[in-house]
Design goal:
It is built from 5 helices and 8 strands, in the order E-H-E-H-E-H-E-H-E-E-E-E-H. The chain has about 190 residues and is α/β, with parallel strands linked by helices.
Length: about 190
C-alpha cells in the first residue's frame, strides 16, 4: 500500500525501472499500474484528464501513501492543478499524495533525467508535506500544484519553479530582459 504508478508511456515502466534503478524501489509495494494515455502531453484534453481522474480515484480506494504519475512536460502543470481541484471536490478524508513527474529528455536519450525524477518522486519523504494533495517532482524539487509554473525559458533545459520561490522573480526579470533585448534586435532588423 505504498503507492500506485499511473503512467503515460507505452513501454513497461516497472520493467524499465528495474533495469535503470536496480533496487531503488524494492521497498515499495506497487499495487496498481495503468496506462492512461501514450500520446504527446500537449494533446492532453479534459477527456483524457477525466480518464486519469477515474484511475486516480480507483487507486485511492487502496489508500496508498502516494500515487506517482509519469507525464509529459508540455501540460504537466495543468494536469496537476486539474487533479488538485478534483481532489478538493472529492470530499473524502484522504492523506494520499499525488506526485506527477516528467523529464527533459526521453528515456532512451543518454542525457535523460527520467530515472532521477522518478526515483525522487518515489523516494521523497512525504510524511511532513503540507495540506496540498498534488505535487510535481522535477529536478530534485517537489512543488505543490497550486504554485507550480514552468521557469521562463533562458536557453537551458526546462525546469519548474514555485511562484513562492524567491528565485521566481529574479528568473522572471531575466526572462523579461531577454525578451526586451530580442524585441530590440528584431525592430532594428525590420527598420
Amino acid at each position: 500500500k505504498d503507492g500506485a504508478l499511473v503512467g503515460g508511456h507505452v513501454f513497461d515502466l516497472i520493467e524499465r525501472l528495474s533495469e535503470n534503478m536496480p533496487g531503488s524501489f524494492r521497498h515499495l509495494n506497487i499495487t496498481k499500474s495503468d496506462i492512461i494515455y501514450s500520446g504527446l502531453s500537449e494533446n492532453i484534453n479534459f477527456s483524457i484528464q477525466n480518464i486519469l481522474w477515474e484511475s486516480v480515484k480507483n487507486a485511492l480506494s487502496c489508500s496508498p501513501a502516494r500515487i506517482v504519475i509519469t507525464h509529459g512536460t508540455d501540460s504537466i502543470e495543468q494536469t496537476a492543478r486539474y487533479l488538485e481541484k478534483k481532489l478538493e471536490l472529492y470530499k473524502k478524508n484522504i492523506t494520499t499524495k499525488i506526485i506527477l513527474t516528467a523529464s527533459n529528455y526521453p528515456p532512451d536519450n543518454p542525457h535523460t533525467d527520467v530515472w532521477e525524477n522518478i526515483r525522487f518522486a518515489i523516494s521523497k519523504n512525504i510524511s511532513k508535506l503540507d495540506k496540498n494533495f498534488v505535487f510535481i517532482a522535477f529536478q530534485e524539487r517537489l512543488i505543490p500544484a497550486i504554485y507550480v509554473v514552468k521557469e521562463f525559458y533562458l536557453g537551458k533545459p526546462m525546469m519548474y519553479i514555485s511562484k513562492t520561490d524567491k528565485r521566481f522573480l529574479k528568473i522572471k526579470k531575466q526572462y523579461m530582459k531577454k525578451v526586451s533585448n530580442m524585441k530590440n534586435i528584431l525592430q532594428k532588423r525590420i527598420y
